[in-house]
Structure prediction request, 414 residues.
Amino acid sequence: MFELGFFSPGKSKNRYLGIWYKKSAETVVWVANRNNPIIEPHGVLTICNDGSLVILNKTEGIIWSSNTSRRMENPVAQLLDTGNLVVRNNFSMNTSESYVWQSFDYPSDTLLPGMKLGWDLKTGLERHLTSWRSADDPSPGEYTFRLDISILPQLSLYRRSVKLSRRGPWNGVNFMSIPSDPNFSFDPILEDNQDEIYYMYESYNNPTVMLLKLNYSGKMQRLIWKERSSEWKVEFSKPAEDSCEYYMKCGANTVCSINKTPICKCLKGFKPKSQYNGTWPTTCVTNSALDCKSEDRFVNLSGIELPDLLKVSLNKSMNLKECEAECLRSCSCRAYANSNVTGGGSGCLMWFGDLIDIKRITDGMDIYIRMPACKPGKKKLLLAVVIVVSLMVLLPAFYFLCYRRRKLKKKGNF
Prediction:
């Protein structure tokens, strides 16, 4: 499936050690010496007695090293069918526990099936994707794709330190707003325990080859290999231009709906903070202050990707009714929702500040947004309207019945 060797990307003459898909040599999935290329056409990959992999130039200077921390007596390096380059003891069982080093722990710009994206909590190792600088330069570029693990796991795309897009949070089944696999041949997995938190996907014993690649222009792409045409098909490329996928496309306390014009709108009960000039993003604020006397109510907004988890609390043991009561008790609680959709829904997420980055999506979740109770004056006006409408309906009916009664009485039928 994969090959390991030296290559020169695009028009570059620099040499790098990489792994590529065997049927498409230009599809490089991992690069060792990204920051330190070999500038002459002489390079050697070798394994030291302590188990470290090293790349040497023609003067035997070390260009790159795997820096293996555990020493071993009889080290071997092996490229697995998964595309993972591993170092292990030749006398040990070929299992992940026996690897003293593996390329899967140091991703480049591609996530392969079985590769973890996330954190080893014991060692502090973070596995994330980093784009190439250009098509000719595999050195780390401006874009990173990583698993954020605050409150609930989310997948986020960054340009340097600026968040460009997010997918999430994890709802017990998948990350929200990630397009599903059209052939249902790959299974998304999230592992969250005391030792590690990571996202990965695995194949259902399917011959289909799929890659997730962060390209140098900042697009996260799903690629499927088409055997008949011997080429990659781009299943999706995110974020799409002029869409709701860009972070805070519309501003605080808004909802972004790609199929509406304009795509941005203040949440129900909110209005633009300042005079609206027709451009977004802009911040929306409540039409009136919250009462905070248990008379506030909640409005359901369905089919959405939950707001970003900025000022949020999580209680995984609460149900939705308990979550509502808890939110009402706190004057600063602005919205609440289930944290998990499995089993009919469970867990309690509560937001305590502006609601950031809400967008309508297919198979989205419900969120309940706090609204102020009607003011006394408005209550009286509403009661008066109800009375007037009731009289307008009941009085004609009353007069009609009286009229019928008189007619029947004259006929002697009453």
